[in-house]
Amino acid sequence: MNSSNKKPHISNITKKEAWQIVLQAKDQYSNNKDQKSYTIKCNTQKNTLVCIYSKVKEKIIRKNFSCEERTENMINMYLRLVFGNEHPYFVGHIAQSLDGFIATKSGQSKYISSKENLEHIHMLRCISDVIIVGSKTVQKDNPKLTVRLVKGHNPMRLILDKNNELHNRYNVFSNNDGLGFKIISSKIKNNDDNVFSLPLHKRYFKLNDLNNLLHKLNKRIIFVEGGGSLLSKFFDSGYLNQLQICICPIILGSGKNSFLLKAHKTIPKLSYRSIKYHKMGSDVLCDITF
Question: What's the pTM value of the predicted model, to 2 decimals?
Answer without folding.
Answer: 0.91
